[in-house]
Amino acid sequence: MSDTQKTWGGRFAEPTDAFVARLNASVGFDRRLYREDIAGSRAHAAMLAGQGILSAEDHAAIERGLDQVLAEIEAGDFTWDAALEDVHMNIEARLTALVGEAGKRLHTARSRNDQVATDLRLWLRRFIDETLPVVDRLQDALLDLAERDGHAILPGYTHLQRAQPILLAHHLLAYVEMLERDRGRLVDCRRRLDESPLGAAALAGTPFPIDRRHSARALGFAGPMANSLDAVADRDFAVEFTSAAALCMVHLSRFAEELVVWSSQEFGFVELGDAFATGSSIMPQKKNPDIPELVRGKTGRVFGDLVALLTVLKGLPLAYNKDLQEDKEALFDAADTLRDCLEATARLLPGLTVRADRMRAACDAGFVTATDVADYLAAKGVPFREAHHVVGRLVAWCIVEGRTLPSLSAAEFRTFHEAFADDVCAAVTVEASVAARKSEGGTAPDRVRAALAAARARLQARRAA
Ligand code: ARG
Predict the structure, then answer these.
(1) What is the dihedral of CA 100, 103, 107, 108, to 10 degrees?
(2) Is 251 tagged catalytic?
(3) Is 263 one of the annotated active-site residues of the chain?
(4) pLDDT confidence of 16, banded at 50, 70, 90?
């Protein structure tokens, strides 16, 4: 196409430099907004027609043309032209080629500035709507695993040192809670982004007698944005989403790290299904946790996307600036990465083999009931600080002698303090330790059973709503 044919070609005598055209073009990545762009144009055209700004014939021609453009794009028959810069001008040019004059009238009382802001909000709203069920599916998968193997007892860790025994279900439910907050942040982001920039035009509004409520309603927005400058300059929604995505990735990467560690030979707590692990090209014995590693690694890109967006916006004067074109790749990348990682984690869980025996052995060898032994003494009237010291000496002795706490007899306990009675061995088992932690939010089986049921019910209520 020649430059004077460009939508903005009127003012220009010289053609755009080819390098500039390539750098300037966004159609390579913003074409994925085509559905939203067409929906926005339909809403705008219907509003213009309703207000008598566009004739009924022109409106009908635009509708017909947009139907065809949409069909061509979805059939893969549409020719995207980088010389036309972006998705908006590609679609408008094709529309005009198809229906003539009417296509040229579509841009009345509109600018690409309010158009792109509208498209992006619509796109993100749909993305969130499609992603919330993926979060739910991951919660389901965690709950399924908790129900299947959650009775296994493993050491809970602090400082990555074996600390106190916990139920596997309790551990998994911690991630269900994290995801619930992630979900809440996405819902919150969706609620705030649900306003229409359309009709802000370039930045100041328009002299045409438009009805912004009409087009906002047609697009399912709660209403129009209040300020035209804010409408075209704001990308808070992209930052909010990417920040929620980054935090969700933090959670996924923590779980991924645990899967990596747990599937090592040193831990051996779980084995990944063959479909979710890979081998080494040189070491025949290897089964590598590539998928959790990728989830862990991809977390960095989403952080990068967030910092990129914040940096693009920082110090940007009102209203629209071309810098804002840089919002899309970061937003799309954060969105795609989040969705893939949620999906990958949900899919890998059913194939996970839990090695309850290895978890149990780690508890037995790990002195995880030491607190319970000290609590036992404290309950017999020994001041807790003294009890703590006694058990410290006992553990040190076990380490030297190569003994574990469950292997000790009552008589052996007694050599460290006379308050140890015959009931001590039964009182300080791993099961007793877990069962004793009955406080709200604790790992006792009854509490965990109730927490599991509550999490299931929460998901069910959501699906029924
Ligand atoms: N491709 C542009 C973007 O993504 C669309 C808006 C262009 N507006 C303008 N005044 N040049 O931001």
Answers:
(1) 70
(2) no
(3) no
(4) confident
